[in-house]
Amino acid sequence: MGKVLFSIKYEILPEKRDEYLDVVRELKNLIKADGLESYSVYEQKGKQNSFEEIYIFESKEAYEDFDDDPSERVDILMNKLSDMIKQQSTHYATLFEL
Asked: Which residues contact 30 (CB under 8 A, 6 or more apart)?
């Protein structure tokens, strides 16, 4: 079985940037799961406030099981994050390694 790369691209509201960066720093310390090899957040070069979260899972099963038991704190942070994202700027991609 190959790895799975899951990404979420979005833009945040400029006035929420500092709060967003605080939330992402905390999420990077909290998001852990069996089969999750890495979780990273990147800002697009030349396009301030445009970010991409990248999750790399060791298998399709790990990817499918990821949301089964989220922590309460991660849920709170994810809800805060969703309030900072510009409407209709979110794009998801799921890639399966060959």
From this structure: 71, 73, 74, 77
- List the beta strands (DSSP E) in the chain: 4-11, 36-43, 50-57, 91-96
Looking at the domain covering 4-96, what would its CATH class be?
Answer: alpha beta
Q: Evaluate whether 43 touches 50 at the Cβ level (below 8 Å).
A: yes
User: Token match 């990817």: residue?
Assistant: 63
The residue ranges of every structural domain in the chain are: 4-96
Closest-CA residue to 55 (of 73, 74, 79, 72): 74
Given a contact cutoff of 8 angstroms between Cβ atoms, the answer to whether 57 and 7 are in contact is no
Average pLDDT for consecutive 10-residue bins of the chain (98 residues)? 94 97 92 89 96 96 83 87 94 96
